[in-house]
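[audit] Reproducing an earlier prediction to check determinism. Same input, same settings, fresh worker. If the tokens differ from the archived copy the diff job will pick it up downstream; this log only records the rerun itself.
[audit] input (408 residues):
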Amino acid sequence: MFGLALSFYAVAQPAPIKVALIESMSGPFANTGEAVFRNLVWATERVNARGGVKLAGGARNLLIERYDSKGQNEEALSALRAAIDDGVTVIAQGNSSATAAVLIDAINKHNEREPGKRVLLLNYSAVDPSLTNEKCSYWHFRFDAHADMRMTALMEVFKDDQAVKSVYLMGQDYSFGQSVLKEAKRQIADKRPDVQIVGDELHPLGRVKDFIPYAVKIKASGAQAVLTGNWGNDLTLLVKAAKDVGFDGKFYTFYGNALGAPAAIGDAGVGKVIAVAEWFPNASGAASESFYQSFRQRFSAPKDDYVHMRMQMVMEALAQSIEKAGSTEAGAVAAQMEKAVVTMAGQTGTMRASDHQFQQPLLVAQMGKLGDAGVKFDVEGSGYGFRVIKTIASDKAAMPTTCKMARP
């Protein structure tokens, strides 16, 4: 019996490296939290399938553990405390810039107070530009293009759209939505001064159930396009309401390529819904196509069809940084994360050490029907997909930073 016990312990696997996902797993944005969870789980499965994270004491798997923020900052802070109490040193969050801001502040204070238990925040979607400018932190790394970068990419298409002479600006009333509208006004004035802004409106985040009154105003304004940073149900319900009231203008969006939006707008969106991202399923290249098809094999249900390249790169960068640090200690990992370079599916991204803003190409795509030129794959089984119409190289997508990084 004693010999059997020794044998068991000799082959026992090292404990996994836990990553705490702090997201809305309930409430109006639960679908966005679940989409993130699927992406991060798939990313960790691929790391684990090749042997895990290589360390001197033995390879260790990555493990995603869910903590429900319920879409509330206070709940997110409670989740952070619970994760730290559980011994987690890596936090992943992104689906709210306001939440990211409070987490960054709390992590800064925790790491100063308890240097032996420091933690990192890996941000895949919180895109308020201030997070890598005046609010930048050594412990925070952003893998998504921030709002001004996304807006600049969208404007590469908008500025040449001479059919649009009037636009309605619509956003969610919090830091991200406010920054989107502010930058939209600045860039429209700079690049399309002939375009009239006929509406400029913010609405409560995640609390509007009926967007018909907003859609009526949009249609009545005579706008030929809507420009919005809305995401999740706030976008899906907006575009559905616009369709229901007969608005036939364009939608220039940050996130109009999935989570129900294409199906909600249907044929009315063909050639009229534009989105920006670091990658689309119809991006060119065999490596990109293989990447997408592998995800669809893993998550075959149409409702689960929302894969993010950047979320895969988050986990690849983490595994790489831990291996190079030879440690899971947050300070050692951060020192390597600053230098991370990740290549996958034909795309390369690089972490910029000066502000911890990931640098990567940006793509702008237009909604079309499955089978149209450039639309080999549709979205969520809707019959609609997105054709890439503009690619902005990493060096062109980059923007200056005002970050004054304080390093430990």
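[audit] rerun output stored. Observation attached for the diff report: The radius of gyration is 22 Å.
[audit] end
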